Each structure stands twice: as C-alpha cells, then as structure tokens.
Amino acid sequence: LADTAAAIKQLDLVITIDTVIAHLAGALRKPVWVMLNFDSDWRWLIDREDSPWYPTARLFRQSKIGDWDNVFIEVKQALIELMESQDNLPDLPENFDLAYQYYQQNNLVEAEKICRIILAEKLQDFQALHLLAVLENLAGRNEVAIQLLNQVITLRPNSSQAYSNLGNILKKEGRLEEAIAHYQKAISLEPSNSSNYSNLGLIFLEKGRIESAIINYKKSI
C-alpha cells in the first residue's frame, strides 16, 4: 500500500469505486469521488453525498441496480463544474477571501464549494479547513466538523478559535468533559475572550458545579 499511497498523494483528485483506493484516499485526506452501487456497503450510509469518516469524500450513487450510466453522467458534470469553478477563481490565497465573503453573505453553498477547491490544491490550508468545519457544523454534520477542527488544531496548535469552536460543537453533542478541556485550552491561549468563560459557566451549571459556574460567569463580565 505504501506505493499506492505515495501515488495518491501526487493527485489533485481521486475518482474510484468502493475499493481500498477510496478508503486510502479518504484516510490521506485527499479529495476523492466514490462511485457506489445501489446496495452499497453500510459504511457509506444512505441518502447522502458526503461521508462522516472521510471529510474530503464525495459520493455518487446508483439510483437503481445496475444503472452506472447516470453515475458517470453525474461525475462528468461535477468535473465540468469543478474545472469551470477553478477557471473563474482568482489564485490562492485570494480564494479564501472570496469564500469568507460568501460565508458572511450567508451563501454557504458557494463558500463550501470554494473551500473544497482550495483544499484540492492545498490540502493543509488551515483557513479553508477551519471555515469548512464551521460550514459542516451549520449543516448539522457535527462529526465531520469535529474531524476538520482536529486537523486545524494539528496544523495550528495555538489557534484559540479552533479550540473554542470545537468546544461549542462538543457541548452541543453532550460531550461536556471534552468541551470543558477545549474551552480551558482556548482560554489559556486567549484569556481575554469572554465567551469561553460564559460557555464554561453554562456547562458547570448544567453539571451542578455551582461554584465553578459562578467563577467563570464573573470572569466573562
């Protein structure tokens, strides 16, 4: 597999069926489009084009047994759209500014599209990863957002905002002890951010740790 992994790392995009190549490309965080048969393996779930296991994957499914023609048509159209999008975008790093502008305008579809284009060119662009994590969270895909934010933290371990955003998602998921740890790390990196103290206060209050809640509420003022 080492030779295959080395080859995949040199590619901008991998297009494959459900084989070890799909999983290897996903594990390497390479953009990968996976063509799936109608009764695909359980791990690809159903009725979705993304994967909670592989944030860079896009799924193309048969609509009925044996119908690969429509899958190929969808892949062809997606390739055309990807190439056109890249042609119409300014060069990096201006791409991220455009993605963030779309995000601020609540045009989340276009913001996500540009983030994925950026990551196809530069896999470890922490700004694009961070914004994509925010977009995945807004779309309710929290596990994908958590994976992306962990990648951001690996690339930028001093990013207080990444720890804070991850704390927010973990709190929403009910993983309170993990959320506490991430808020505390965010505070250690940026003590002046009052929102982390108030979020900690809410968690401590929910857990019945009244004294800790009061201490953090006071610090948030």
Topology:
Layout: H1 2-9, E1 14-17, H2 20-27, E2 32-36, E3 57-61, H3 69-87, H4 94-104, H5 108-121, H6 126-138, H7 142-155, H8 160-172, H9 176-189, H10 194-206, H11 210-220
Parallel strand pairs: 1-2, 2-3
Helix pairs in contact: 4-5, 4-6, 5-6, 6-7, 7-8, 8-9, 9-10, 10-11
Task: Describe the overall structure.
It is built from eleven helices and three strands. The protein is mostly helical and 221 residues long. The chain has a domain at 1-88: Rossmann fold. Strand 1, helix 2 and strand 2 form a beta-alpha-beta unit. Residues 87-91 have low confidence and may be disordered.
Largest sheet: 3 strands, parallel
Strand order of the largest sheet: 1-2-3
Task: Supply the number of helical segments.
Answer: 11
Order of helices and strands: HEHEEHHHHHHHHH
Q: What's the CATH class of the domain at 1-88, please?
A: Alpha Beta
Q: Kindly identify the CATH topology of the domain at 1-88.
A: Rossmann fold
Please supply descriptive tags for the structure shown above.
about 220 residues; mainly alpha; Rossmann fold; 11 helices; about 60% helix; elongated
